[in-house]
Design brief:
Length: 250
């Protein structure tokens, strides 16, 4: 069932009434930029097992293979442009005094679109971290870097500065998000399958706070039964529809 104009109006009304807005995004908001999701029909994990590529064990076993996968993904993302969903979230950020965008995405597209009050729960694919000294550096694939092993100035091996399965998420990002949620008045979950922890715990936590909640996803997810309003729609369509009703009411 497609989302109706009445549902977009209901979502817009929730956001109009709120003085502070928390947004959590997943790979679905970048899907319309041509960046594959992880678990959808064309998902990245369909062709690889997570254990083969996105774990510390996989990296220590074959760092060249893991870097080749991240360099391949960087190549796809560098050709991608932020889409209407990213731009609508920039417009929403400008409308709220108190706004926080917590993204699970590592593709940097929210920043490229102009979002600023963004926290990256799973790191950033264009940043690398030294396995020896811990230094973080910007890292984008050089044209001729096929299967090279990037090194830190200290000589240590660089790894992608992203959170792998089995690794802890950045505690400062988590704490800032939880602190923000204590005073948020509305929460929007967009383009996430809601199955990867600890991000998957946030919708339930938000619900317990009595905050008005909205989901945007063409498919139902575990979040669907938790939120007040679930829009069965693509982010690139739903977010501009909602933002338009807020900015040009009537
Ligand atoms: N608009 C909105 N949602 C969409 C769109 C779209 N155009 N296209 C697909 N989706 C939805 C899918 O229905 C799916 O529910 O986006 C969701 C993407 O889910 P995942 O691929 O599981 O991505 P995500 O939820 O971000 O995964 C969380 O898992 O692999 C790890 O670290 C990785 O951050 C990632 C985490």
């Amino acid at each position: 069932m497609d989302t109706t104009s009445e549902q977009y109006e209901r979502a817009a009304e929730v956001l109009r009434q709120a003085l502070s807005l928390f947004v959590m995004t997943g790979a679905g908001v970048s899907a319309e930029s041509g960046v594959p999701t992880f678990r959808g029909a064309d998902g990245l994990w369909r062709n690889y097992s997570a254990a083969d590529l996105a774990t510390p064990e996989a990296f220590s076993k074959d760092p060249a293979l893991v870097w080749a996968w991240y360099h391949w993904r960087q190549g796809i993302i560098l050709k991608a442009q932020p889409n209407a969903a990213h731009r609508a979230l920039v417009a929403l950020e400008a409308r709220f005094e108190r706004f926080l965008l917590l993204t699970q995405n590592v593709d940097n597209l929210h920043f490229r679109a102009g979002s600023r009050r963004v926290l990256e729960l799973h790191g950033n694919i264009f940043r690398a971290r030294c396995c020896r000294c811990g230094r973080k550096v910007p890292h984008t694939i050089e044209e001729d870097a096929a299967r090279s092993l990037p090194e830190c100035a200290c000589g240590g091996l660089l790894r992608p500065d992203v959170v792998w399965f089995g690794e802890a998420i950045p505690s400062d990002v988590w704490q800032e998000s939880v602190d923000f949620l204590k005073e948020a008045q509305a929460a929007l979950f967009c383009g996430t399958s809601g199955v990867v922890w600890p991000a998957a715990a946030i919708p339930g936590f938000v619900r317990e706070q009595g905050i008005k909640t909205i989901e945007i996803n063409p498919e139902p997810t575990p979040i669907t039964s938790i939120v007040d309003l679930s829009l069965r729609a693509k982010a690139g369509k739903a977010l501009p529809e909602i933002v338009r009703r807020i900015i040009e009411p009537g």
